């Protein structure tokens, strides 16, 4: 220390200074602003092997003590410290506030001569004794104990904050604590955890906001710790349930209801809408036990029963449970919160606390309140869903881990169920038809139709079907059936009633009419039965009108010659023509038919249905022929004795333009 460094020593000093500042820059948010500047690198070089922060604390804080003689006091103290570190073969690159050997009698004696007598015992129990609170924290936490993190931090707090106790602004700021402790290789993020552990363990350790200090007056930590240990598990459960009540949020993309820790299955309503049940904290989920975990067993009982009766709507419940591996952390945080809340609330009554102790209680309540909120989200992350992969398989409770950035537990659970296709907000007509033709085929085939009410009852009852959030999901799906282009394969017809022979109020998706009102009695009819009835109705209609077949008879047989333009309201289809060929002997050879043409009038009330038939039964076969040139033209004529309204004229004209009609218009007769 007292010799001029040679080139080797200078190189080592420069390397140390650069490494320290580089470390501060890398972790800039954890250290004071000035240490990231080049000037601080020069300060490290000049003060080497002593860290500038130690000199700052000695000259700025310790020198304010009455018996501490500024320069002489610093030299006396540093002489003792350096000698002790040399005897201990300390290998740290710099002498830091956090590396001062406070266990050594000579060092403690030198320091405490400027302090009250009780500080010696305090240092031994709360700062740097072999069985001190910081040593206990490091011994029980491998991550902190590897680098004696808590003990180094405790020394820094003692060295930096103790001289400030009688000042207006006592305590050492957290960034200064980190500066006096951290060396390259440390993880500053671990320092926060170490300080929290120390605050919960030490008897004379205080903090307020970002300031920390030791005081000779015992804090209320021991009182809080004793109170926390006396709490019953039921007290912890009650606080957890109280906080879970804040997560009873319904949402259109989530659950229709949320029930928090019901006492039994009797307290969970048996209703046809999906509800989340948060499992009571007495029943935790064990990942390894799976379906045999207490939470899964409880959830299965609620799924199958409501009290002593069988549950009807078994597909309308899902569950959220706590992880037994994380429960201990949550319970510990809750105990700390309740204990400090007790101290805060009784500060002026039974405990007669000082102002500093009251403030400590207020600060600790806020700290532990946030800790409980965080751990609640980390612990309640198992979504338990009743599932039945096939109708013949037994009911099971499957577990899914629900994480996320939202702080709403119900929203997390809903998102996970949606991602696993176990909560459905939309169900298309095509998927409803898939269920009717698959899992529910026997029920649909029984009479060729099924009522909406019965279908909805199937969805709410059986977990092998989709879990629809509520009745409106199925209603919207049924109402969407007109959008199914090939509804015979992917949809169904609808009817108001069945009289034993005919469907009343029968509506086919191709009818281009509004869907009947959705009621429990509404029937979903198999397409072949609906079309068969519609054919009978058309035949009867045409017979009563004295009309023959709807197809227009042309003068020439279809397929032999061209025809004149189609009459009003017809569809025409033509292909290219080839000339006939004759043999050299004058005889004829079979002529290949190279042209098709046809025209027909569409029924004015069922034009969409008729055109769909023409597409499926005529056009698609022609389009499949090799080398075909297909042309389909549509001619539309409409007349009304009262004339068309202006809005109709405008709409039709605009749509005809958008659809690129060759010609279109309105005229007067």
What descriptors fit this protein?
alpha+beta; 18 strands; 669 residues; five-stranded mixed beta sheet; 25 helices
Count, helices = 25
In the predicted model, the low-confidence regions spanning at least 5 consecutive residues are: 548-587
What percent strand?
5-15%
Percentage of helical residues? 40-55%
InterPro entries: DUF499 (IPR007555)
Protein name: DUF499 domain-containing protein
Region (Disordered): 533-592
Biased composition (Polar residues): 570-588
Outline the structure in words.
The structure is a single chain. The N and C termini lie far apart (117 Å). The longest helix is centred in the middle third of the chain and has 25 residues, at 355-379. The protein has 25 helices and 18 strands. α9 (149-161) packs across α11, α12 (221-230) crosses α15 (324-345) and α13 crosses α15 (324-345). The model is unreliable at 548-587 (pLDDT under 50). It has three domains: 7-215, no CATH class; 233-419, no CATH class; 429-451 and 467-544, no CATH class. The protein has a five-stranded mixed sheet with strand order 4-5-8-9-10, sandwiched between helices. The protein is of the alpha+beta class and 669 residues long. Pfam families: DUF499. Residues 570-588 have a biased composition (Polar residues). Residues 533-592 are annotated as: Disordered. This is DUF499 domain-containing protein.
């Amino acid at each position: 220390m007292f010799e001029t460094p040679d080139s080797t020593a200078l190189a080592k000093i420069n390397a140390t200074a650069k490494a320290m500042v580089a470390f501060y820059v890398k972790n800039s948010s954890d250290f004071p602003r000035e240490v990231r500047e080049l000037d601080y690198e020069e300060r490290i070089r000049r003060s080497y092997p002593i860290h500038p922060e130690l000199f700052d604390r000695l000259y700025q804080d310790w020198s304010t003590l009455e018996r501490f003689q500024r320069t002489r006091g610093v030299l006396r103290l540093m002489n003792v410290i350096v000698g002790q570190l040399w005897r201990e073969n300390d290998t740290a690159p710099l002498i830091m506030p956090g590396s001062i050997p406070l266990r050594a009698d000579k060092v403690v004696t030198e320091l405490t001569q400027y302090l009250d007598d009780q500080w010696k015992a305090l240092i031994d129990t709360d700062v740097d004794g072999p069985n001190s609170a910081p040593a206990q924290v490091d011994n029980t936490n491998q991550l902190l104990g590897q680098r004696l993190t808590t003990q180094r931090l405790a020394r820094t707090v003692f060295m930096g904050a103790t001289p400030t106790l009688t000042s207006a602004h006592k305590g050492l700021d957290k960034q200064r604590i980190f500066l006096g402790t951290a060396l390259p290789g440390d993880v500053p993020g671990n320092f926060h955890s170490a300080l929290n552990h120390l605050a919960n363990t030490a008897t004379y350790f205080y903090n307020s906001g970002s300031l920390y200090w030791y005081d000779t007056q015992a804090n209320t930590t021991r009182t809080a710790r004793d109170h926390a240990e006396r709490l019953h598990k039921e007290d912890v459960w009650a606080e957890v349930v109280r906080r879970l009540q804040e997560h009873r949020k319904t949402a259109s993309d989530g659950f229709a209801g949320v029930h928090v820790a019901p006492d039994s299955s009797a307290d969970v309503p048996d209703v046809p809408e999906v509800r989340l049940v948060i499992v009571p904290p007495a029943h935790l989920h064990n990942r390894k036990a799976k379906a045999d975990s207490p939470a899964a067993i409880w959830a299965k009982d609620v799924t199958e029963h409501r009290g002593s009766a069988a549950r009807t709507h078994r597909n309308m419940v899902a569950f959220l449970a706590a992880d037994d591996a994380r429960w201990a952390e949550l319970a510990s945080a809750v105990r700390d919160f309740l204990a400090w809340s007790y101290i805060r609330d009784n500060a002026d009554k039974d405990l007669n606390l000082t102002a500093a102790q009251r403030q400590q209680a207020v600060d600790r309540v806020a700290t532990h309140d946030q800790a409980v909120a965080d751990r609640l989200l980390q612990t309640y992350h198992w979504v338990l869903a009743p599932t039945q992969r096939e109708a013949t398989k037994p009911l099971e409770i499957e577990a899914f881990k629900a994480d996320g950035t939202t702080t709403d537990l119900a929203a997390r659970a809903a998102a996970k169920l949606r991602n696993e296709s176990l909560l459905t907000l939309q169900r298309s007509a095509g998927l409803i038809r898939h269920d009717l033709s698959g899992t529910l085929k026997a029920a649909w085939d029984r009479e060729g139709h099924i009522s909406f009410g019965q279908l909805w009852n199937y969805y709410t009852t059986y977990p092998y079907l989709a879990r629809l959030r509520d009745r409106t999901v199925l209603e919207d799906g049924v109402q969407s059936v007109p959008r199914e282009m090939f509804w015979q394969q992917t949809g169904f017809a609808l009817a108001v009633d069945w009289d034993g022979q005919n469907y009343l109020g029968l509506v086919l998706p191709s009818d281009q009419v509004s869907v009947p009102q959705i009621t429990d009695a509404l029937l979903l009819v198999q397409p072949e039965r609906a079309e068969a009835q519609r054919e009978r109705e058309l035949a009867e209609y045409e017979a009563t009108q004295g009309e023959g077949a709807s197809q227009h008879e042309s003068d020439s047989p279809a397929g032999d010659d061209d025809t004149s333009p189609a009459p009003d309201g017809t569809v025409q289809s033509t292909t290219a023509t080839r000339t006939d060929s004759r043999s050299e002997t004058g005889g004829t050879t079979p002529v290949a038919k190279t042209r098709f043409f046809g025209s027909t009038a569409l029924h004015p009330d069922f034009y969409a249905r008729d055109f769909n038939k023409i597409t499926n039964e005529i056009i698609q076969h022609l389009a499949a022929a090799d080398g075909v040139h297909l042309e389909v033209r549509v001619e539309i004529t409409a007349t009304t004795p009262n004339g068309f309204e202006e809005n109709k004229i405008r709409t039709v004209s605009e749509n005809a333009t958008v659809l690129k009609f060759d010609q279109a218009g309105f005229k007067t007769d």
